[in-house]
Automatic annotation (TrEMBL):
CC terms in the record's Gene Ontology section: extracellular region
Intracellular or extracellular location(s): Secreted
Residue ranges constituting the NodB homology domain according to the UniProt record: 82-284
Annotated GO MF terms: hydrolase activity, acting on carbon-nitrogen (but not peptide) bonds
Name listed for the protein in its UniProt record: Polysaccharide deacetylase
InterPro entries noted in UniProt: Glyco_hydro/deAcase_b/a-brl, NODB_dom, Polysacch_Deacetylase
Record key words, sorted: Signal
PROSITE patterns: NODB (PS51677)
Alphabetical GO biological process terms: carbohydrate metabolic process
Gene3D superfamilies, alphabetized: Glycoside hydrolase/deacetylase
């Protein structure tokens, strides 16, 4: 059923969403995780061939900007027709070994959000379990990434927790300490934050602002305009299923209504787990 909706709904909505975006343009922030072969069932993974196809589409059809430039543009209210930002979450080693050469080939800037415990090699993303050895960037590799003028580094907390489940002191530590650790390791300011698993609320937004970040990104889908909260910027997930046609549809917003429904359901599931009640008892 979901596959059918994914094929049919964007095709029906594309003409209307394309017109709407011309009328009300904004900045679309794309979300990636891994670029690697051999994990076809992993939603977080895009193959190198598919990633290059996607970057070629962006280079040919869009104005790709850094996250820092996007934040400035959103603050100024300047209209940003066709503007796109590329981001990566979790700080995987393949961002350096596989993604970076492709980004450099097409001159596409990107922000990589790293989790400091992962870079310290004391833990790794639980999704990968025993396969996690050597999965994440270490600090030498983070600094190697930064030799490219196209790359900037953002914070993705210390240990990748669900922030809303933490007490205030622990949540503040995850948000603030990660920034301090990254800055100490790379010798540069860290201006942007990414909420792990998209788990945040008003409290977390306030903590991020208090920690000195300029803005933060979420997993809520859609375009970013001047009215979009700076500490809840929206992003569009890109997967290995997105060939050139599907990517263009996402860039035009044809997937946004479907993604909004899926995101709302996911938020209800998050709230249910956090509150310890069955999903069905959480009101929409």
């Amino acid at each position: 059923m979901r596959g059918t909706l994914r094929r049919v709904v964007p095709r029906l909505l594309l003409p209307a969403t394309a017109v709407y975006q011309r009328w009300r343009p904004g900045i679309r922030i794309l979300m990636y995780h891994r670029v690697v072969r051999g994990l076809p069932q992993d939603q977080l993974t895009v193959s190198p061939e598919r990633f290059e196809e996607q970057m070629a589409v962006l280079a040919r059809t869009r104005r790709v900007m850094s996250l820092a430039d996007a934040a400035l543009a959103l603050g100024s209210g300047e209209r940003q027709a066709g503007a796109v930002v590329v981001t990566f979450d979790d700080g995987y080693r393949d961002n350096l070994t596989v993604a970076l050469p492709i980004l450099e080939k097409y001159r596409i800037p990107a922000t990589i959000f790293v989790t400091t415990d992962f870079c310290d090699q004391v833990s790794s993303h639980p999704r990968y379990g025993e396969r996690a050895a050597g999965l994440h960037l270490n600090w030498d590799e983070v600094r190697e990434l930064l030799r490219s003028p196209l790359i900037s580094i953002g914070s993705h907390t210390v240990s990748h927790p669900y922030l809303q489940r933490l007490d205030p002191e622990a949540a503040r530590r995850e948000i603030g300490e990660s920034r301090r650790r990254i800055e100490a390791r790379i010798g540069r300011p860290v201006e942007f934050f990414c909420y792990p698993s998209g788990d945040f609320g008003e409290r977390e937004m306030r903590y991020v602002q208090e920690a000195g970040y300029r803005a933060a990104v979420s997993v809520a889908p859609g375009l970013n305009r001047r009215a979009t909260p700076r500490y809840a910027l929206r992003r569009t997930e890109v997967t290995d299923r997105d060939g050139a046609r599907e990517l263009r549809a996402k860039l035009h917003g044809a997937f946004d209504p479907l993604h909004a429904l899926l995101h709302a359901r996911r938020r209800r599931e998050f709230d249910a787990r956090r509150l310890g009640v069955p999903n069905g008892e959480i009101a929409s």
